[in-house]
């Protein structure tokens, strides 16, 4: 078996305003679903927010968390003897180390699951902090469990390789053998065991397990899950049901999102699914409307995990830490950076439009579209905590 790549925890954030309130702390209450609507403390709740796939592990920041070419890694032998039950301490190889072996070790040191069934406890630090900060700011998170792709933070190909399949995204995206991720009982069991590790982890900053913390309002089965053909929506309904039941058994108060890439009508009878999702790169309002119509016809929750807006969903890129006057680069053409002084007027106009939409959806308030964007202090006072 290959000593395979890492699984880090990806957090796609769906933020929503939580009105600062009286005695009861809304942050301790779960978001719930009744029929096709979501509620928080009896009031209808709508998620409006960006895609922050890089939260807690950013491949754009050099050297920390920077992606290593995965194809290169997969040619490498294991860095050392395998020990089940505890993680390797990989030292602190710097990223610019030109020796591929050392780069691999550095990346594994950031990985929550550097090898099958082994949790690297040290990797929880930034994840715990990110969840804690979201809670402090009244932001809710929607967390996907796995990526469809061989991306830097791990994905379904890692589980396939751990089970002995010689498969990579680069050469096997269309290989029918990838269906083993959904269909092989041993792989499904190893995936569910990983989900158990995630949800039972206790965050020392909140003293809540991920299952307990209402900050994570929803768990998504995965990001853009597909079968061997692009757009096939072939994520078996039986797998969706199995994973949803597993999540709900561990975390009964969480909403479950079907992360199949596209709204697959054969999944509508999976009662455990609270939210169906789709992504639109680039914006495709006709597809969004057709998804919503399908869901309404079926009487299923017509929530889209994407943000209606000029180019949904929008990866929102943050400032660097601790030198927070730097903005992190991610040149995919879909990135937006709030408060970056080098933004063009067109970009700032788009941010104002999104802010207006956010305020309307989350608080029902109308603000002027040309209202100045509030300045965010750098560093935030709360960052001192
Ligand atoms: C939650 O709802 C109850 C009943 O409407 C209300 O009394 C309470 O103030 C609400 N809590 C918050 C924090 O808004
Ligand atoms: C994995 O697959 C590639 C290409 O299909 C092949 O060249 C390589 O020898 C295989 N590796 C193993 C360990 O089977
Ligand atoms: C953390 O939570 C656990 C389980 O609810 C409890 O037993 C423990 O006392 C808590 N620890 C602290 C420091 O509050
Ligand atoms: C939808 O999901 C089912 C399995 O649940 C699969 O057989 C089918 O190919 C998927 N795609 C479409 C377009 O229905």
TrEMBL record:
Keyword hit for Signal: yes
Keywords annotated in UniProt: Glycosidase, Hydrolase, Secreted, Signal
Enzyme class name: hydrolase
Listed GO CC annotations: extracellular region
Catalytic function, reaction form: Random hydrolysis of (1->4)-beta-D-mannosidic linkages in mannans, galactomannans and glucomannans
Bias kind Basic residues: ranges: 81-100
Domain Glycoside hydrolase family: 106-267
GO terms assigned for molecular function: mannan endo-1,4-beta-mannosidase activity
Name of the protein in question: mannan endo-1,4-beta-mannosidase
Species, as recorded: Parascedosporium putredinis
């Amino acid at each position: 078996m290959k000593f395979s790549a890492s699984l880090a925890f990806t957090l796609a954030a769906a933020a929503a305003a939580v009105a600062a309130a009286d005695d009861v702390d809304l942050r301790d209450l779960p978001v719930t679903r009744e029929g096709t609507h979501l509620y928080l403390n009896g009031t209808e709740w709508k998620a409006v927010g960006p895609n922050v796939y890089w939260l807690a592990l950013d491949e754009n920041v050099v050297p920390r968390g920077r992606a290593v070419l995965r194809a290169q890694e997969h040619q490498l032998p294991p860095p050392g003897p395998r020990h089940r039950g505890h993680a390797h301490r990989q030292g602190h190889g710097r990223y610019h180390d030109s020796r591929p072996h050392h780069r691999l070790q550095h990346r594994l040191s950031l990985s929550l699951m550097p090898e099958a069934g082994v949790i690297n406890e040290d990797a929880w630090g930034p994840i715990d902090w990110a969840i804690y900060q979201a809670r402090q700011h009244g932001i809710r998170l929607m967390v996907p469990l796995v990526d469809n792709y061989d991306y830097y933070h791990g994905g379904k190909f890692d589980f396939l390789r751990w089970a002995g399949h010689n498969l990579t995204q680069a050469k096997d995206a269309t290989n029918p053998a990838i269906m083993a991720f959904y269909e092989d009982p041993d792989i499904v069991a190893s995936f569910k065991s990983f989900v158990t590790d995630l949800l039972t982890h206790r965050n020392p900053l909140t003293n809540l397990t991920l299952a307990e913390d209402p900050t994570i309002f929803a768990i998504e089965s995965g990001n853009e899950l597909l079968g061997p053909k692009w757009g096939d929506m072939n994520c078996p309904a039986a797998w969706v049901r199995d994973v949803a039941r597993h999540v709900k058994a561990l975390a009964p108060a969480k909403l479950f999102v079907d992360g199949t890439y596209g709204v697959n009508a054969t999944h509508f009878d999976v009662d455990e699914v609270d939210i169906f999702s789709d992504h639109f790169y680039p914006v495709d309002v006709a597809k969004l409307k057709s998804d919503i119509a399908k869901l309404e016809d079926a009487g299923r929750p017509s929530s889209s995990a994407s943000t209606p807006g000029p180019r949904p969903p929008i990866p929102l890129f943050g400032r660097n830490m601790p030198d927070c006057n730097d903005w992190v680069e991610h040149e995919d053409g879909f990135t937006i950076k709030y408060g970056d002084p080098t933004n063009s007027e067109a970009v700032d106009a788009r941010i104002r439009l999104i802010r207006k939409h956010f305020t309307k959806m989350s608080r029902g308030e109308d603000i002027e579209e040309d209202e100045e964007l509030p300045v965010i202090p750098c560093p935030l006072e709360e960052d001192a905590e």
